[in-house]
Amino acid sequence: MNTDKSISGLIKNYKYGYSLEQAFYKSQEIYDREIENIFLKNWILAGHTSQIPNPGDYFLFEFDKESIIITRTKKDEVKALINVCRHRGSHVCLNKEGNTTAFTCPYHAWSYDLEGTLIAARIMSNDFEKSENGLHQAHVELVGGQIYISLAEEPLSLKGMQEDLADVFDQYGFDHMKLVEQRTYPIEANWKLAVENYQECYHCAPSHLDYAKIHALALAPKKFQPMKDKFLKENTSNIRTKASPYYFDLAKEGDEGYQYDRNPLLKGIKSGSRDGKPVAPLLGKVNEYGNGASEFSVGPTTYYLIYDDHMVGFRFLPTSLNTCIADVFWFVRGDAIKGKDYDLEELLWLWHVTILDDEKIIIDNKKGVDSHFYAPGKLSEMEMMEQHFLNWYLKALS
Amino acid sequence: MNTDKSISGLIKNYKYGYSLEQAFYKSQEIYDREIENIFLKNWILAGHTSQIPNPGDYFLFEFDKESIIITRTKKDEVKALINVCRHRGSHVCLNKEGNTTAFTCPYHAWSYDLEGTLIAARIMSNDFEKSENGLHQAHVELVGGQIYISLAEEPLSLKGMQEDLADVFDQYGFDHMKLVEQRTYPIEANWKLAVENYQECYHCAPSHLDYAKIHALALAPKKFQPMKDKFLKENTSNIRTKASPYYFDLAKEGDEGYQYDRNPLLKGIKSGSRDGKPVAPLLGKVNEYGNGASEFSVGPTTYYLIYDDHMVGFRFLPTSLNTCIADVFWFVRGDAIKGKDYDLEELLWLWHVTILDDEKIIIDNKKGVDSHFYAPGKLSEMEMMEQHFLNWYLKALS
Amino acid sequence: MNTDKSISGLIKNYKYGYSLEQAFYKSQEIYDREIENIFLKNWILAGHTSQIPNPGDYFLFEFDKESIIITRTKKDEVKALINVCRHRGSHVCLNKEGNTTAFTCPYHAWSYDLEGTLIAARIMSNDFEKSENGLHQAHVELVGGQIYISLAEEPLSLKGMQEDLADVFDQYGFDHMKLVEQRTYPIEANWKLAVENYQECYHCAPSHLDYAKIHALALAPKKFQPMKDKFLKENTSNIRTKASPYYFDLAKEGDEGYQYDRNPLLKGIKSGSRDGKPVAPLLGKVNEYGNGASEFSVGPTTYYLIYDDHMVGFRFLPTSLNTCIADVFWFVRGDAIKGKDYDLEELLWLWHVTILDDEKIIIDNKKGVDSHFYAPGKLSEMEMMEQHFLNWYLKALS
User: Fold this and answer.
1) Is A152 on the interface with C (CB under 8 A)?
2) Using CB atoms, which residue from B206, B368, B380 is nearest to C89?
3) What does the pLDDT read at residue C1?
4) Residue C120 at interface with chain B, using a CB cutoff of 8 Å
5) Cα–Cα distance between C71 and C60 in angstroms, integer?
6) Interval A50-87: pLDDT, tens
7) Which of B90, B105, B122, B133 would you mutate first to test chain A, the one with the most A CBs within 10 A?
8) Is the Cα dihedral C221, C225, C226, C231 positive or negative?
9) C266-287 b/e with 16+ CB inside 10 Å = b?
C-alpha cells in the first residue's frame, strides 16, 4: 500500500495499467498544480474566428478563475487579452460578447485599445508609464479559423502540427467553416474524469447506444481492427487516412501533443446523425461520403470529431476542484445555409444526447471515486488512450 | 488556557465534566479522523430485513462519501456490498432500491452477482483475475430483523449483546417486526451535536413539551429516581427491567458498546403518542401496557426507544464536517395492518415533532459553538450519558 | 518577484503606492488573522439607541461567526452581551429584536438577566458558580445615540474623539437623531474590497453618475481643491469645518482612528438626494443648507456622510473570506415625522442606488483579483485614503 501521500510520492507510486489514486481527484494542492502546469501552459481552444468576423468584435473565454477577451484588432489580427485591469484588477470587459473600439474598465475608467495597450488612465502621477501597463496577453495561434491560446510565457510549438496536417485542414476546408452552435455542459466532477471519459470507447457500447449505432470504435478490438483494415484498403475518399499519433506522452519534445486518425463508421453510415444519413453539405474539398470520420486533437483539452459533412469540437475545462465544463462546438462549411442546407436540431442531436449520457456517467464515477473504498482498478486494452493521458498527466504534474 | 491545538493536545487537555473545545466541531482534520476511527469501524444500523423480503431485493445505505448496497442473496443471506466498481470506481447501483439478479456497472458494464462476485468484465487481458475483483463488502450482523454493518476489517464483537439481550429481543418480537416508515432529517451541524443532544434529557423539559408529557426522563433526578424505584417495584409487565449499561466507555474490551434499560412513563401513559394512549397492537409477547418504555442502543450512532406497542429507531450520521442527518425508523409488529391496527400519522406524531424541535435546537447550538467566544461549559448531572459519550469519543479519536 | 508567501513575508514585501497582493484576498489564514486582529479589536457600529428606547428592548448585531445582543438594562444602560450560552454554547436569544426581562437559553433553560448575569441554571452541582457564568460581554461606547462595541479585552480609546468632536455631535444633534431605515447589502467579495471601494472617489465619476451630480469629491483634485478653498472661505454655515484627519495609520497611539472633514457639494446642491434638494428638516442646530456635507468615521468599518438634513451611516463587515455585507443606516432628526417632514423613498434614493452600483463594481473587482494574472497596480493620487487604509491594515495584520 502506498503510504507516501506527497504529490511526488503519489506520482512515483502510480501503477501502470491502473486508474489513478483517489488523491489526484480530491487534493486542492494537486488541482492548483494542474492549473499551473497544464492549463496555464498547454494550448486551449478559445473559440472560432467566425465569432469575431469584424474588427472590434470580441467574446470572453473563461475557465477556472480566468477571463480572457478574444478580439479582432483593426489590423485584422486576433488577440487574447487577459481581462484584468492593471490598476486594481477589476474585470475590464463585462459583456460576454460585442463590438467595441476600446475596453474601458467600469471601475476607474482605465481604457485599453483592441491591442490591449493602455490608452487612458486619469489622474496618475507623472512617473506612471502607460506603456508598461497594457493588459497581459495570451499567445494566439490560428488553425484555419480555430483560435488556440496559450497562457505560458514560452508556449509549446504548434509548428510541426501545422505542417503535418496542412493537407487535412485543406481537405476539410478549415479556413471556410463556420461555428453554428456552442453548448456548455457543466459537470459536477473533477475535469480529469471528463477527459478520461473522452479517451476511451470501452464505455461506448454499454453507455452510448446512439453513438454505437454509428461508430465502429464502439466495437471490441477484435471486431474493430479487421473492419478498419478493410476500410483503409477499400477507401476511395480523398481524405487523408495516414495517422499522426503524437498525443500526450507521444508528443515530440517541445511540441504540443496532437493526434490525427481516420476510422470507419458502421456499414452504410454516412455521418454522425440520428440515422447515419448526411446532415449538411460535404465539408471543404471532401469528394464523397466515405463511411469514415476523423479524429483530431490539440493538447490535452481540445478534441474534434470530423464527419464528412460537419465537425464537432469538444473542450474540457476545470471550474474548480470538483466541477468542470464540457463545451461542444458544431461546425459546417461556411456557405451552408441554416434551414436549407442543414437542419440545426438534426445536426446537434447525436452529440447532445451523447454528452448528456457522459455527464451522468462521469458524475456517478465521481461519487464512487470519493469513497474510502475506491482503489485504482485495472484498465482494459480499450483504454490505452487513457493510459497515454495518464502517463502524460503524471509527467506534467511533476 | 489550552494552547496545544494538535489533535492529541486537544484530547489531552479536555476538562472532565465540561463540553468539548470548539476545534472538535470545526476541524476538517478531526472530522476525517472521526470517519476513519468511528464510522469505518463501529457498527451502524443500515436498515431492516422487511425492506428486502425476497432474494434480489436491495436498497442503498449512504452516509458521508459512502454508498453501500444492502441486498438479499439467492441463499437468503443479507450482504452489504460497497457500491464502488473495482474497475474505475463508478457507483455500480444507481437505484435507491429495487430487485435484480446482478449489479451491472453503468459505465463499462462490469457485472457483479448478488454476492458481490465479479461475473463479467469485457475485453480484459488474460492476466486479469475476476475472482480478485469482487465488490468490497462490509460485515453484516442481524439482530432480529435489524441489519447492522461494520466497515472495519476486524469488527467489534456483538456476541455478548446478542446473548445478554436475547430475552429482550424475544419479548419484543424483534424477529417479527416490520418497518412502516423511515424519515430523514437533515441537520446543518456537526454530527456530534446531534448525538450529544440525544444523550441527555436535561433539555427535554424546556425544549420538548410533548415528550415531557409522556416520559418521566424529562424530570429532574430527584423526582425521577423515586418514580423509577416505584415503577420497578410495582412492575407487572413481562418485559425485562434489568439494565445493561455497556455503552460508550463502559463497553467491554473488544465489544461494541450497547445499552438496555427500562424507564417509567408518566402516570397513566401507555405509549409514546399524542395523548399517551396506544397507537398499535402490543409488540411480540408483551403482556400489557406496562407504563414504561425501554432504551436500547448499539454502537455510537444507533438508538431505539421501545414502547409496548411500537419501536422507534434513531440513527445519526455525518454527511460533512458541518452537516449530518438524523434518520428515524418506526416499527410495529409484523402482522399489524395499516388503517386497521394502527393509524400511521398518530404513530409518527410524537417523534416527528420532537425531532423537528431537536433539529432547531442543534442548529442554534452550532451557531454559538462557532463563535470565538464559545468555551467548554460545565455539564449537569442530567448530562452524565453525554459525559460517557465524550469519554469514549476522545479515546476513539486517539 | 515576491516568493515569500508567509503572512509576514507578504506584509514585508508590500510595495507602497500599489494595491495588495492577491493572497490578502484569498488566504483563509489571513482572513482568520483579520478577525482576531481587527474585528475582535477595533470599535464597530452595532446600531442606534433609537432601536432600543425602553428597558428590556434588544436587537441582535451579527457578523462573521458572532452574534451579540444589544440591550437596554433596567438601569437604562446599553449592554452588548455575547449570544453564546455559557453551558454548551447555544445561541441564547433567537429573535432578531424584541423586549424581554431575561434571556433564557432555548436548549437547557439557563437564564440570564439584562445585565448578562446568570440567574438560573437547573440541576447543577453544588460547586457550580452562577456568578462566574454570566454571558461574555463587549465594551460599549455611545456617541450620541450611536452604539459602538469593541470585542477586545482592552479596547482602544475613543476619549480623544469624543472630546475633539463634541461640537460636531452637538451641532448635528447626534443625541436627538432617529434611525429611520437600515438596509443590508450582501456582497460576494472579500470585505477589504468593499472598504477600499469606500476609501476613494477615483471611481465616483465613472461609476456613480448620481453621486457625481451632487458631490464635488467626484471631481479631479485640480478642480476639487480650488472649489473646496472657495467653499471654506465663503462658508456661512455654523457646522464645523476644521478637519480631524486621525484615520487609519494617522490615529494617535492607543486611540481608535477617526476622521472628520467637511467638503463642498456641487453648485446649488443642498442635500444628498435625487435632485439635490432637501429631503428632511435641518439636523440639530444646523443653521442653513450650507452646500456642504461632512465625513465622519470611527475605526476601520464605520463611516458617516452627514448632509445638513440627514445622515447616512455605512458599515462593512465580513461574513466569510469571500463574502461581506454593507449595512446602510439612514438618520433624521428625532422629531421629524414620516410622510410629513420627509418622504422615506426620496431620503433613501441616492445611497440605495449608489451602493447597488458599488456592489456590482466590487464583485467585478473580485473576479479579476482572483485571476493568476492579477498583480498589484499603481494607485492614483485620488486613492490616498485607500493608501492610509492599506498602511494601517498591514500593520494591524502584523
Assistant:
1) no
2) B368
3) 47
4) no
5) 9
6) 999 999 999 999 999 999 999 999 999 999 999 999 99
7) B90
8) positive
9) beebbbbbeebebbbbbbbebe
pLDDT class of B201 with cuts at 50, 70, 90: very high
Of A118, A157, A137, the C-alpha closest to A46 is: A137
pLDDT tens, residue by residue, A18-45:
999 999 999 999 999 999 999 999 999 9
How far C43 CA sits from the closest chain A CA (Å)? 28
> Hunting for cell 455527464 — which residue is that?
A359
pLDDT beyond 70 at C17: yes
The verdict on a CB contact (< 8 Å) between B206 and C92 is no
In percent, how much of chain A has pLDDT > 90? 99
Beta strand pairing call for C302-306 and C137-143: unpaired
List the single residue in C with minimal CA-CA distance to A90.
Answer: C365
Domains in chain B, CATH or no CATH each: 44-142 (2.102.10.10), 157-397 (3.90.380.10)
CA atoms within 13 A on the CB side of A287: 6
pLDDT band at A2 (very low <50, low <70, confident <90, very high): low
| B95 CB neighbour count, 10 Å cutoff | 12
Q: Are the Cβ atoms of B65 and A381 closer than 8 angstroms?
A: no
Q: Which residues pair with B314 in a beta bridge?
A: B303, B328
pLDDT, position B5? 84
Contacts of B188 in chain C (CB under 8 A): none
Question: How far C80 CA lies from chain B's nearest CA (Å)?
Answer: 13
What is d(CA A157, CA B327) in angstroms, rounded to the nearest whole number? Answer: 58
Q: How far is C257 from C242, CA to CA, in rounded Å?
A: 17
CA A71, distance to chain mean position in Å, is: 19
Maximum pairwise Cα distance, chain C: 74
**Cα B203 to Cα C109: distance, rounded to the nearest angstrom:** 8
Nearest C-alpha neighbor of A149 from the set A31, A261, A322, A317: A317
Q: How far is C102 from chain A (nearest CA, A)?
A: 47
Of B19, B220, B382, the CB nearest to C89: B19
State the complex-level ipTM: 0.95
